[in-house]
Design a protein that fits this description.
The protein has three helices and 13 strands, in the order H-E-E-E-E-E-E-E-E-E-E-E-E-E-H-H. It is α+β, with helices and mostly antiparallel strands and about 260 residues long. Strands 2, 4, 6, 7, 8, 10, 11, 12 and 13 form a nine-stranded mixed beta sheet that branches. A four-stranded antiparallel beta sheet has the order 1-3-9-5, with no helix packed on it. The N and C termini lie close together (about 10 Å). GO terms for molecular function: carbohydrate binding. InterPro entries: CBM2/CBM3_carb-bd_dom_sf (IPR008965).
């Protein structure tokens, strides 16, 4: 007869509880990317200003890499400016502006780790062509925690720029204020701010359509980092894991 001894029962339960805990942690601690605005209207030839922020969801993010794609025939990157306290990483594969292919890669570290939502940087595009342009933070982006685990989830994230023939009147308001913390000790990368003339008009939020799946550049580092679980799948997996633990516990209790 098969008999499970107490020590073996304890070992099995510990393994199951650890697995359930890891899955639960994956759902609780998940960094997300936020566009501001998510939709914007601009006239042909005007500038489009998009700010991107990182929300680490209560777990420190030490290094963030964003891989962004955009239609090269419609938009052209004029500049990217990091927010305060970020220290840019300029090595090949971690910093790129390619207007021919419609690709932008920006990577930076945050001294001491980013714990709360904060701006990452601002992109200024020039509107070249009429139509709708989707600016996409791709699934090759990451946010690394203290043990180099990738906590980024909910990707891809899209901002929509609608470009019309008629120029949009510039709103007379101050741009979003950046945090007033002290600047990093290390010298930041050269990111010259460009004039914000002709900044686009923000469109009231509407129900966004599902963004198309697009390919982007894959760096050597992101190729070896596991893709995080979908945000919608995490609660289901955690619930399934908890149910599995309960079933196994009842099974072992009868032995």
């Amino acid at each position: 007869m098969n008999k499970i001894y107490p020590q073996r029962k304890s070992s099995i339960m510990q393994t199951l509880l650890i697995a359930a805990g890891l899955l639960w942690a994956a759902g609780v601690f998940a960094a997300t990317v936020l566009w501001s605005p998510t939709q914007v209207r601009v006239g042909k030839g005007q500038n489009v200003s998009l700010a991107v922020a990182i929300d680490p969801e209560d777990i420190k993010a030490y290094t963030v890499k964003l891989e962004i794609t955009y239609p090269a025939d419609t938009l052209e990157v004029q500049s990217f400016t990091f927010a305060n306290n970020w220290m840019p990483l300029l090595q090949k594969g971690y910093d790129l502006t390619d207007n021919a292919k419609g690709a932008l890669i920006k990577t930076a570290g945050f001294p001491g780790g980013l714990r709360a939502e904060a701006p990452f940087g601002t992109i200024i595009f020039k509107a070249k062509k009429l139509g709708d342009a989707r600016v996409l933070v791709t699934a090759n982006s990451f946010a690394l925690g203290s043990t180099n685990q990738n906590t980024m989830t909910g990707l891809p994230v899209t901002a929509l720029a609608s470009i019309s023939e008629t120029p949009v009147q510039q709103k007379k308001k101050e741009p979003s204020a950046e945090p007033l913390q002290n600047k990093p000790v290390l010298s930041p990368a050269e990111n010259k701010s460009s004039p914000r003339a002709g900044v686009a008009e923000e469109i009231p939020p509407t129900q966004p359509s599902a963004p198309p799946h697009e390919t982007s550049f894959v760096s050597e580092l992101t190729a070896i980092i596991a893709t995080p679980l979908s945000a919608k799948m995490i609660p289901l997996i955690a619930a399934f894991s908890a149910a599995a633990v309960a079933i196994v516990w009842l099974f072992l209790k009868k032995k």
